């Protein structure tokens, strides 16, 4: 495991060098993996022991999508004068950076290349974030309020009963893929969160704790573990903090970073992934998605997400915040198959007006379930508790709960767990494109699991 992580660190250091010289980035889709030096009978060369064990436990085969992108192909592309930014083995692509459009044509002429697509142009400027000052004097709630104000967003799905039964995420690993975790390393009330590591797929040389604060708020919904201040929905889980969102612009390349982050999460043995990100409008309007593109396959992010359950992981993602905008619909990867897409409600169970709706273009129910995302309780960058609005926070509330349920139901596969959560919803008998299957009752789900054992 240590050797594996060291190799990943060296790769990330390499791809992060000379980033400031880039003005263009291209996604290079490859035809095959014919020149690979890896084999299916030696997965320990590219997967951690935990990732291999997770597949075995769920009776999932290691297949050609698990094989890394061919090193020989990557090297031939690199030798043309580009920098390698990311690779994606499940969808078999390489993302490269350069400042010369003619290089894209030369890459396209290589015999093993299927297509080359522009995914990034250097933005005019990017903001430099400054660290917020810390107050670190969070409000302490009465002794009978173990969870602080966050109790309601847990109780709505009866997660408190799972916690009381001993299922608080212990032994489970969650990856959070977001835009940054501003001050998460300095906030006193977050010091006991078990962070396994961090990776920045946008800029490997950055300080992930000095980037955007969105991921901090998301993390706090799950990971907080300070009784009488705030306790999240999976306070005893372990966490990887990953960054794929580039807040400086909105471009297709962020999906490439996200794909690389998901594969990293898989490779180190993560069980559940939360991503409170979604895309439908870009800086270049020719890239914008259309409603007919919400079929679970059009966006790279959605195709990548659809692989995750086949690798034994559960993806929990936000539905989007366009419910009161002309778009109205969910955003990729929320349209993917075999993921849990979460809409937002208030603490009385009423849909938040901004919560995006479904269905998918091919008629599947979305969102899958709903959780508190209107005035959700989070930790701010100054260390104090506050509220925030967005399906971005409904998703981690649900993600932590789903993780605790999986801890309680360890024999389930990822797909079985997703199905169980849907069936436990209070609208499971009549799901719609607004609430999906409704507010899940995860204690009820656990009881159903026990009765079927």
Layout of helices and strands, plus pairs?
Elements lengths: L1 H15 L7 E7 L18 H9 L13 H8 L4 E6 L4 E6 L2 H8 L4 E9 L29 H5 L3 H6 L8 E6 L15 E7 L13 H10 L1 E2 L3 E2 L6 E6 L9 H15 L4 E4 L24 H9 L5 E5 L21 E6 L23 E4 L3 E4 L5 E4 L2 H18 L5 H10 L18 H11 L1
Helix pairs in contact: 7-10, 8-9, 10-12
Give a structural overview.
The chain is an alpha/beta fold. It has two domains: 9-121, no CATH class; 148-452, Rossmann fold (3-Layer(aba) Sandwich), CATH 3.40.50. Helix content is 27%, strand content 17%. The strands form four sheets. The chain has a seven-stranded parallel beta sheet, with helices on both faces. The chain has a four-stranded antiparallel beta sheet with strand order 2-3-1-4, with helices on both faces. The longest helix is centred in the last third of the chain and has 18 residues, at 391-408. Residues 1-19 have low confidence and may be disordered.
Short structural summary:
This protein is α/β, with parallel strands linked by helices and 453 residues long.
Radius of gyration: 21 Å
Molecular shape: globular
Beta-strand segment tally: 15
Assign the CATH class of the largest domain: Alpha Beta
Number of domains: 2
Mean pLDDT, rounded to whole units?
93
Structural class: alpha/beta
Q: Quick one: biggest sheet?
A: 7 strands, parallel
